[in-house]
Amino acid sequence: MAAPSVVLFDLDDTLLETHEAHRAAVILCCRRAAERHPGWTPAALQEAFVRTYRTLEAQLEAGSLRMVIGDIGEIGEMGERSQ
Q: Which pLDDT score is estimated for 75?
């Protein structure tokens, strides 16, 4: 099987509606992590995830965060590349 040549990230759900599946996955992951770590609660983990996700999303929207992905280089606004 050939390796994928492109990976698309639908950060604003314009291609697929995934909110319910995403929410269910977060809840399940937080439950499983709490089962393995005494002192952690699913609610606290979920709150930390949501807070971090919202911060990341705000930084991406403001253009104050740049992503570097392997040998592709830096990805800036509108997906342009710089080397």
A: 53
pLDDT per position as a tens digit, 27-75: 999 999 999 999 999 999 999 999 999 998 899 889 888 767 766 555 5
Cβ atoms of residues 65 and 59 within 8 Å: yes
Query: Is the Cβ–Cβ distance between 42 and 27 less than 8 Å?
Result: yes
Segment 18-31 shows an average pLDDT of 91
Question: Positive or negative CA dihedral for 14, 16, 20, 23?
Answer: negative
Q: Which two tokens stand for residue 3?
A: 């390796």
Print the SS3 string covering the chain. CCCCCCCCCCCCCCCCCCHHHHHHHHHHHHHHHHHHCCCCCHHHHHHHHHHHHHHHHHHHHHCCCCEEEHHHEEECHHHCEEC
Question: What is the C-alpha separation between 82 and 78, in angstroms, rounded?
Answer: 12
